[in-house]
Write a structure and sequence with these properties.
- It is a single chain.
- The protein has 450 residues and is of the alpha/beta class.
- The chain has 16 helices and 14 strands.
- The strands form 2 sheets. Strands 5-4-3-2-1-6-8-7 form an 8-stranded mixed β-sheet, sandwiched between helices. Strands 11-10-9-12-14-13 form a 6-stranded mixed β-sheet, sandwiched between helices.
Length: 450
């Protein structure tokens, strides 16, 4: 059984082809810069050198078509034809209150996603384009949707509601939805493995720090609270999103500068955050390089972002009544030791104490690390996220009609013996250049899943 996973962003398509019977990733890759004259293609086969190329790729359909052509190419491909693909899994960012788990995509389901576009105008349109393109190119292959917001449907009502007119919730669905759910699901299960505990006995704070940033409070293995809200704009400081701020500022500036609603929306989502503070940079590597050169606004951006993360860690630890671990994931969470250090400094009174040397070493997205100090009462892990792996297992479960509840499904990746083969190969190469990495790798306790 071969599963084709597609994660369609506004200007990219991430993909993975996985052989379930052999428990092996056949191909993984990404197409970036869709719509430009030269889109970048990355194609990686286990055991072979990564291939990179550029092609003209105007849209998602063209990208998926080219990916399929490569997959079945006599020289480069790994399958003989589309008939070998059993099903396709798609990422869908927003499912509103209608979907609490992954679903088989029917015309009714696809129409529901379209009706929810206004709740996720930056994401759902791209997800839908990917679904429609895949259905057109592979009309006889079942299509499944793995939905980010479904993970957070376990939040209690007193947490997901806003103190706004109640009829707004009744008429328009105004409430906290949360995002990055697929990432949080994967990371929470892997954290339980590293703790040697049943996942439904774990309290965690997970910090997903990429260009988009959100934190998740996990209480007894399920989502209890999360920093993103009705849209991904709320919460932490992000690459270009403002995060938490006084909403009256927006009204004040719209009056002062005569901004339209569209203009203000663009400012808050695309011109704020780290970019807004520094005036130039989004990538944290650039910000940290300029901070080393005494750029005051770069220093300010780092201090502001790390403080906001620290504040949320403390609040969420209190909300769930104490935690077993703090976990960092996603691009910067996995590789940025400066942001991690500044977010963790001063939390010793909560039993959260990190090893500064281990934190400096742990800067790769290819292994799970434990950067806790020896006397830390709370574990501190770095766990590379793997949303595509969740896609694979959810698609299999739907295909086999064996899953009735996402939160209680036992995923293969939450077994102590699970290993991501591609990441393992890359990590072995990194260790040959830097043997110190092995000293920081998290040790899986010798126990079986309860």
């Amino acid at each position: 059984m071969i599963i084709f996973c597609l994660n369609c962003g506004s200007s990219s398509v991430k993909y993975r082809l996985y052989d379930w019977n052999k428990k092996q990733t056949l191909v993984t890759g990404i197409v970036e810069r869709l719509g430009l004259s030269e889109s970048k293609f990355i194609y990686e086969v286990s055991g072979k050198e990564k291939m990179e190329s550029t092609k003209s790729c105007p849209d998602h359909r063209a990208a998926i078509k080219i990916i399929i052509e490569i997959l079945i190419d006599p020289e480069l491909g790994v399958i003989n034809g589309l008939s070998e693909i059993s099903s396709v899994g798609h990422r869908v960012v927003h499912g509103g209150e209608r979907f609490s788990k992954s679903v088989i995509i029917t015309d009714e389901v696809l129409n529901a996603f379209k009706e929810l576009i206004e709740l996720a105008p930056l994401h759902n349109p791209s997800n839908i384009l990917g679904i429609e393109a895949a259905k057109e190119l592979m009309p006889n292959v079942p299509q499944m949707a793995v939905i980010d917001t479904s993970w957070h449907q376990t939040m209690p009502k007193h947490i997901y509601m806003y103190a706004l007119p109640y009829e707004w919730y009744e008429k328009y669905g105004i409430r906290r939805y949360g995002f990055h759910g697929t990432s949080f699901l994967y990371v929470s299960r892997r954290a339980a493995v590293l703790l040697g505990k049943d996942p439904f006995e774990c309290n965690l704070v997970i910090c997903h720090i990429g260009n988009g940033v959100s934190l998740n409070a996990i209480k007894y293995g399920i989502s209890y609270d999360t920093s993103m809200g009705f849209t991904p704009l709320e919460g932490l400081i992000m690459g270009t999103r403002a995060g938490d701020h006084d909403a009256a500022i927006d009204l004040f500036m719209m009056n002062k500068e005569k901004y339209t609603i569209t203009e203000m929306n663009s400012i808050l989502n695309k011109k704020s955050g780290i970019l807004g503070i520094t005036g130039k940079y989004v990538d944290r590597r650039d910000v940290e390089e300029m901070a080393e050169k005494d750029d005051e606004r770069a220093k300010l951006a780092i201090d502001m972002e790390s403080y906001r993360i620290k504040k949320y860690i403390g609040a969420y630890a209190a909300a769930v009544g104490g935690i077993d671990a703090v976990v960092f994931t996603a691009g910067a969470g996995e590789k940025d030791d400066i942001i991690r250090a500044k977010a963790l400094d001063g939390l010793e009174f909560m039993g959260i104490k990190y090893d500064k040397g281990k934190n400096r070493i742990a800067k790769t997205g290819n292994a799970e690390f434990d950067i806790s100090a020896d006397d830390s009462k709370v574990k501190i892990f770095i766990i590379p996220t793997d949303e595509e792996r969740v896609f694979i297992e959810d698609v299999i479960a739907l295909y086999q009609e064996s899953k009735s509840s996402q939160t209680r499904y036992v995923y293969r990746f939450q077994m102590p013996s699970y290993q991501n083969s591609l990441r393992h190969e890359s990590f072995e190469k990194e260790c040959r250049e830097n043997p110190e990495l092995r000293k920081v790798v998290a040790v899986i306790p010798d126990c079986s899943l309860k």
